[in-house]
Design goal:
The protein is α/β, with parallel strands linked by helices. Helices cover 29% and strands 24% of the residues. It is built from eleven helices and 19 strands. The strands form three sheets. The chain has an eight-stranded mixed sheet, sandwiched between helices. The protein has a six-stranded parallel sheet with strand order 15-14-13-16-17-18, sandwiched between helices. α5 crosses α10 and α6 runs parallel beside α7. The chain is elongated, with a radius of gyration of 24 Å. The two termini are 30 Å apart. 44% of the residues are buried.
Length: 411
């Protein structure tokens, strides 16, 4: 749902009633992963997508029905060999879709509206919703923040969670009473808030399985956690023509892109108009003082040992997602030898993607940028980099292969 947060937040601020269909699980090949959403308002306007077109019509009607009867439902869509015209995914996959009404009178609206508002402002927050379990619990929601407090959507109470610096605000459906949590068991709220915090730290969306009364007790529930986090960083070192092309591709992929170069004549806004930041500093000095995380991508295009070696010596020790360096194979061998002399270990050197990029036969800056971006995506998603033609590997391997996180053992 948070993939369309900006548009949905406008609907919520305008007081519109709407229903949201969210992909909560994927099996086999499917166009979108968990968290993808289609929303429909009371006037029939729609935004978003859950299947790239395969089952949009059927999901649209489910949203319209949810607006009428106020019921949260979970539906499964898959491929039908028996009837080529049946509603299903022509790609052969299976998706589970949760359809939730968000009307003025619905109990879940305050927490969903608060989540949409936070996501639209670019804040770090997670929405946790029960997507499998007893029918009366479907759709109950918890908003997890980082300020250490829990806000009830109904009585204004605030609780502090002992599981770190993540807080929660919650609501549930018309079944049962409201008590500032999922309305099931306090331990469930604390457990989900803590686990959602881990999802936030990784910047990912996925499911976890937890007992109805907490980590190990009660009937099993499946909870979808959708993360809203700032865009992942791409830091491009070296203000060259290849960097300008890579900035454009990085922005296209949704990165917050920084260009860093020690030479002020090259690191200019005129040369990199699409960059979010332009920094004039020695690369290794900037990397020492800037923030990085497990999603950060570092692309070293300086192609100069006096810049490369101190920069890569530091970069290969950081817990970032990707470190790549431009250069010929001869340059790579020389660079690695210099890094060894500077104290780099073989384990650290094994992290280095050099020569940077996949073998696409690239020649131009734009083709080279595409080659680098392809390697970054393949590295993040677990792709092989091979042609899909004739291959027998999964097309959407990251969503199909990742199981739900299991919390302890459930009864």
């Amino acid at each position: 749902m948070l993939d369309i947060a900006e548009e949905l937040n406008r609907w919520a601020e305008q007081g519109r009633d709407f229903a949201v269909a969210t992909v909560v699980a994927v099996g086999g090949s499917a166009p979108h992963g968990p968290g993808a959403a289609l929303a429909v308002d009371a006037d029939g306007a729609a935004l978003g997508s859950v299947s790239g077109g395969c089952v949009e019509g059927a999901v649209y009607e489910l949203c319209r029905q949810a607006l009428q009867d106020g019921e949260t439902v979970l539906e499964r869509f898959g491929y039908s060999d028996a009837d080529a015209f049946a509603v299903g995914l022509t790609c052969g996959g299976v998706i589970d879709v949760l359809v939730t009404p968000v009307r003025a009178a619905d109990a879940a609206r305050p927490v969903l509206a608060a989540t949409l508002s936070a996501a639209a402002r670019g804040e770090t927050a997670a929405l946790a919703r029960i997507v499998a379990g007893p029918a009366e619990l479907l759709g109950r929601a918890l908003l997890v923040r980082r300020d250490g407090t829990s806000d009830s959507a109904y009585d204004g109470s605030r609780d502090r969670f002992p599981h770190g610096s993540h807080s929660a605000r919650s609501a549930h459906s018309s079944h049962g009473s409201y008590d500032g949590g999922f309305g099931v068991h306090p331990e469930l709220d604390r457990t989900v808030a803590a686990e959602a915090g881990a999802f936030l730290d990784a910047g990912r969306t996925g499911t976890l399985e937890v007992g109805e009364q907490g980590a190990r007790c009660g009937s099993p529930l499946t909870v979808l956690v959708e993360s809203s986090v700032p865009p992942p960083r791409m830091i491009v070192f070296g203000a060259i023509d290849f960097a300008a092309a890579l900035v454009r591709v990085g922005k296209f992929l949704g990165h917050h892109v920084t260009v860093c170069d020690a030479r002020p004549v090259f690191a200019t806004r005129a040369r990199f108009p699409e960059a979010d930041e332009i920094v004039v500093d020695w690369p290794h000095r900037y990397l020492e003082r800037t923030e990085t995380d497990g999603r950060t991508v570092l692309c070293v295009l300086t192609h100069d040992a006096k810049f490369d070696v101190p920069l890569l010596r530091l970069a290969l020790r950081l817990p970032v997602a990707y470190v790549g360096a431009m250069g010929s194979r001869r340059t790579h061998l020389d660079r690695c030898e210099r890094l060894r002399e500077a104290g780099a270990t073989e384990l650290e050197l094994a992290r280095l993607r050099s020569p940077i990029g996949l073998d696409l036969g690239a020649r131009t800056p734009e083709e080279t940028a595409l080659s680098i971006a392809a390697e970054i995506v393949a590295d993040r998603r677990g792709g092989s980099g091979l042609s899909l033609t004739g291959a027998h590997t999964p097309i959407h391997r990251d969503t199909a292969a990742r199981p739900a996180v299991r919390i302890g053992s459930v009864a």
